[in-house]
Backbone:
């Protein structure tokens, strides 16, 4: 029973030592140079030293600030634009082609423009995160509003409900599930946007460390930065998933009731 309930956590933990062992054996068998791929023990030691030195915390803090600020603004922008597009068809027809063009453009090609316009500071990275985050939120918001049954609106009309009451009691509850689903996707994309911006032009951040490690041929710095970014991405996803379960608590009740 315990294994069945927690198998999503137990199985990765059980596989992890095997992957580490294969990594170490591969380096020894194929005689891979340490400047191309260090042994797990060496990388772990450099990872610990990186945190003990204290310099890494500033870079993590800057990247997280860019992610959280950009995600917060992106959610607001995505919800507002999505709601307007869902309610005003002509606005959608006018704006959607331009939004799609911007979204399909490679983010790495847009990052230099943001840096040129806003400088090497946090603003350019936040703007890039906002652009990345707002799109999935906006699309989910449009789909959520348009999936509301027309009979619900007819009922609110019979009850003589105002537009604000329709929004609070109908549109917001109906759209919350898809909005949270969009946020879960957006938070991981936000990290990608922040790192791309930092790699193109920045004075600090984990993306900056990736570039610095590449320029100085420091494989340990590159791999440590990748590991930290992976942990951050996983943590953000798990937090958003936890929030989704807590907010949509009735879904969990339905699942437990069914089976």
Residues:
């Amino acid at each position: 029973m315990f294994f069945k309930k927690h198998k999503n956590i137990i199985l990765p933990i059980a596989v992890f030592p095997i992957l580490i062992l294969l990594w170490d054996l591969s380096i020894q068998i194929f005689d891979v140079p340490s400047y191309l791929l260090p042994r797990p023990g060496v990388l772990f030691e450099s990872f610990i030293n990186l945190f003990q030195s204290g310099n890494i915390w500033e870079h993590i803090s800057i990247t997280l600030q860019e992610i959280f600020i950009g995600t917060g603004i992106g959610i607001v922008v995505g919800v507002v634009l999505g709601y307007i597009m869902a309610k005003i068809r002509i606005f959608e027809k006018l704006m959607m082609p331009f939004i799609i063009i911007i979204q399909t453009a490679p983010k790495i090609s847009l990052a230099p423009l943001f840096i040129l316009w806003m400088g090497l500071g946090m603003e350019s990275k936040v703007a890039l995160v906002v652009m990345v985050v707002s799109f999935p939120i906006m699309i989910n918001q449009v789909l959520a509003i348009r999936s509301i049954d027309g009979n619900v609106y007819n009922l609110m009309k019979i009850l003589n409900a105002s537009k604000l009451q329709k929004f609070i009691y109908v549109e917001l509850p109906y759209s919350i599930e898809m909005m949270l689903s969009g946020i879960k996707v957006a938070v991981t994309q936000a990290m990608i946007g922040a790192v791309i911006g930092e790699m193109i032009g920045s004075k600090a951040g984990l993306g900056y460390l990736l570039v610095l490690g590449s320029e100085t041929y420091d494989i340990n710095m590159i791999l440590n930065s990748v590991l930290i970014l992976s942990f951050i991405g996983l943590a953000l996803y798990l937090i958003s998933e936890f929030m989704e379960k807590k907010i949509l608590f009735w879904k969990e009740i339905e699942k437990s009731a069914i089976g």
